[in-house]
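To fix ideas, we quote verbatim one protein's residues and fold tokens.
>
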Amino acid sequence: MSFQQGLSGLNAASKNLDVIGHNVANSSTTGFKSSRTDFAEAIASAIVTSTGANSGIGVNIAAVSQQFTQGAINSTGNSLDLAVNGDGFFRVSLPDGTQAYTRSGNFQLDKAGNMITTDGASVMGYAIDPATGLTNSTTVQALKFPTGQPIPAKQTTQVTALLNLDARATNAAGDATATPPVAATPRATYGTSLEVYDSQGLATPVTMYFEKGAGNTWNVYNSLDANAPSIGQLVFDGSGTLVSGSPINMTIAAADLANPNATGANPVGDLALTLDLSGVTQFGSDFAVSKLNHNGYAAGELTGISIGNDGTIMANYSNGVTRAESQLALAKFSNVQGLSAVGGNNWVATSESGPPVFGTAKSGSFGSLVSGALESSNVDLTAELVNMMTAQRAYQANAQTIKTQDQVFSTLVNLR
């Protein structure tokens, strides 16, 4: 026996205590992943025993491996806090431009509206086309939130109605159409209205009237004036399903608009609308409106931000509009053990980890995001304290082997 075994054991136990201490120190660090010390015996290949076996000369540190198990997800109530539930890392750009990856989702906004980490790294994601609502997954960019900028008004161009016209109603000539017949009335007319918006966001009411015609037909008007012409006719089959008459185009003259500005710097012209009545039915039940909406809105102020479990960032406005602004990018690796930790809960890719595969939450094998929550450290504090006691005993035992070896040498030196 030599001092080599004891010294290697002391070094290994000391390194193990360092790793355990690092784990314990980060037991409350958001997104932290614990590490484990892996040992391997050391063999003196030049020294062979009588049985042919190589002589052991102690222990080596084979590796310090990170444990990328899922940490507990705890609610915080902060809408900018995000946790990855499953596979994936947030992609961030460090202040020096290095592309890094993290599981720590305690994000915040700077004064310019940029989404950043606590150490100032930019959070990366994809833009969403406001016209189509589709994510541009080919170009990654730093995420920037709208910061109080109002959205302009959008003029209404289409009105959609889902309603039922009573098949038992009588037509304008007083002919009963129901079976069994009902008492004739001078005319059966139903009406419904809603507010639409012009290009300046001014609201004006639009009313639609439906007058029973001959057979399974209904004439559509935008005025109760007896001389007003019909703007369209709806035709139904015997089962009450609309077969023709939709859509209908109608125009509201500028003079009919609420608070018209016909001579100002921004004159308001006629408001052209398309009425989508494809969802109108004619059943033998009371007149009822199920849905009546349109595609316009007034100007609106930003009231808040929300993030979906697929990473889509939604801006909420005072006019009821919710607009998809962007989507967070996630990354995964074929070998997460090959990632290199660079501090600040960040890792960078290496040749051992392989190149990152990018995507979005809930797509492919990527996990989902939990908004208003953070992933806790995956350190098992109880297990680490037990490991610490074991490592301490190992250190003491190896120190004892050195002491014993020293006593043996002293005995040899003192031989007479």
Notes: DSSP finds two helices and 28 strands in the chain. The chain has three domains: 3-67+381-413, 73-149+307-375, 158-294. The longest strand covers residues 35-48. The longest helix spans residues 381-413.
